[in-house]
Amino acid sequence: MAHPSEAEKFIRDEARVDWHDGALWHVRQKRDAAANQLPEWEKLREKAAQIKSHTMGNLDFYLEKFEKKAIENGIKVHWASDAIAHNEIVLKLLKKKGIQKIVKSKSMLTEECHLNPYLENNNIEVIDSDLGERIVQLAKEPPSHIVLPAIHKKRMEIDTLFQKHLNTEPSNGDEVYLTTAARHHLREKFLKAEAAMTGVNFAIAETGEFVICTNEGNADMGAHLAPFHIASMGIEKVVPRLEDLGVFIRLLARSATGQDSTTYTSHFRKPRADAELHIILVDNGRTVQLGRENYRSSLHCIRCGACMNTCPVYRRSGGHSYQSVVPGPIGSILSPGIDMKKHASLPFASSLCGSCTDVCPVKIDIHQQLYRWRQELTQGSITEPAKKTAIKIAGYLFISPFLFKFAGKIGCWFLKVFPRWIIYNRLNIWGKQRELPKPPSQSFQEWYQLNRRKNGKKGNS
Amino acid sequence: MGKKEILSAIKENKPPALPLPELAFQPIDHDQLFMLFQKSLAKAGGATIVIDSFKEAKEVITNIFPEVNHVVGHLKELSTIDLNTVKDPHQLASVVLAIFKGALAVAENGAVWVHENEIIHRAAPFISTHLILLISRSQIIADMHQAYKMIQGVDYGYGVFISGPSKTADIEQSLVIGAHGPKSLTVLISSND
Predict the structure, then answer these.
(1) Chain A residues within 8 A of B3 when measuring between CB atoms
(2) What is the Cα–Cα distance from B40 to A308, expressed in whole angstroms?
(3) Is residue A426 exposed (0-12), middle (13-18) or buried (19+ Cβ within 10 Å)?
(4) A26 secondary structure, DSSP code
(5) What confidence tens digit (pLDDT) does each residue in A130-184 have?
(6) Which of A47, A64, A221 is nearest residue B180 as measured by Cβ atoms?
(7) What is the pLDDT of residues A353-375, one digit of tens each?
(8) Shortest alpha-carbon distance between residue B150 and chain A (Å)
(9) Alpha-carbon distance B56 to B73, whole Å?
């Protein structure tokens, strides 16, 4: 189940691909408009990258500082080495209080830990409260984008889904009607929830507080009503100082959706007087990634999704083609580190155009890392044998001037002489959706030799 | 348990330490802040009303929301319940209008910082159907760098930057104002308080 075979399913519906492509490119354009309004945009990116680099070099110090401050504030701090440990901590906390109904706001970390099925298997109802997440939850699908979880869904599909699960009337995909229905449905869940789970956008070591950014207000509706709040956080989310937030908050929403900021930037420092607040610091492979010199900067990611919005491959293949919790360019450099075999195709799901690197607010050199992963995967013999053989043959051709010339001549002759149905055969993968170039009358070498002699000077055109 | 393993793994794997950068950003020109704040808030779907002083607030609010029956917050004259007497935030489920005073306002994104002490119940500015925030013109600062400078050292258990009404575009990227939080945000800016 590699990216190419998954993507093949997605691209069968060309109209849908165009729609998906257009929708995401539109978000990219909004990001550009927002970024262009700040003359200090590049300076912000540079500072963000430096803050993150500095933090990674002192990660143990900052995590311990955060823990100390958080505990002083009355927050209970837990540490989980991996996904299973995280899930077990959550279950233990909930069971201790006899909690059976929880609401959860968007947390890619809890997706990574596959928390929902784990809790459901233990008879705990988990309602994802972000509208996009609720949609995919009802559709029994994983999210396809880390910021816009239901970007792959058309309004009529959501209409049908809500008719089935929320008893709405057919509304022709009316977004106001459907959102209002979701508002009522989820409001009931917020009011009845016995616990709220959230993610964490940033955790501040200096003050022992954490920040959650939403447009919908769902994280707050959950956390401020339930008497029990568990926040789950990857250890790389810690930042040193409150003032560092200035940089990240200015970059996050602009990079994600082109907004100047999310509607709500909520700072949680102490539990409510009548409630408990817990935070779980999760490793799950991050310390291993920290040790990989080639890939450690991928830990700088603030989960804005800008790389997905710009990536031509993501836009035209959709998040589900990646079969990884975090898809797109950033997912393609994070996931092979977690499971090299399962995600071996992801670094190859790229044209290496570098657009992702351009838009990344924390300046992760994503496309360089994609390239490095390719080399690692190929040397480790995890790439497709056909590809390996093709590259090997190309290697022989490029080393020998005679073979290169000869192959070129044969290729041109083949294209000139043979009929279309032979050229565009099943082995011609390149030609499946592309026209091969017209064979030229002479090769560049031949032309150059001729003209060089004509002019008598070297290097003239 | 997990903590020891995680910390020792970090110590083993972490890169050489680089210095923490100094953050020195030039703030925007002061004269522009008032206009920029209104523009940013409008972009985010919020409304602005400029008043001479907070004494006018009651009248202005009653004009926008003439028939409202459940009001909480800063203006005692308009409140139907005193938040200090509410034991359980669930009781606020039927609140239609919440009115709170902001502690500062950020021009670059139309955000108003609201401190926990003002709202008393953290759910209050979210659970209400509509939200009104009161700020003085003199409280408007340029950007988030300035904002975090100003709240540095302030003690709070919770605080939130609110920049507009709640919203979502999860249904085919079509923007809907009013997701789970308030369906509208109106900021009253007093010129003289």
Answers:
(1) 79
(2) 26
(3) exposed
(4) H
(5) 999 999 999 999 999 999 999 999 999 999 999 999 999 999 999 999 999 999 9
(6) A221
(7) 999 999 999 999 999 999 999 99
(8) 10
(9) 16
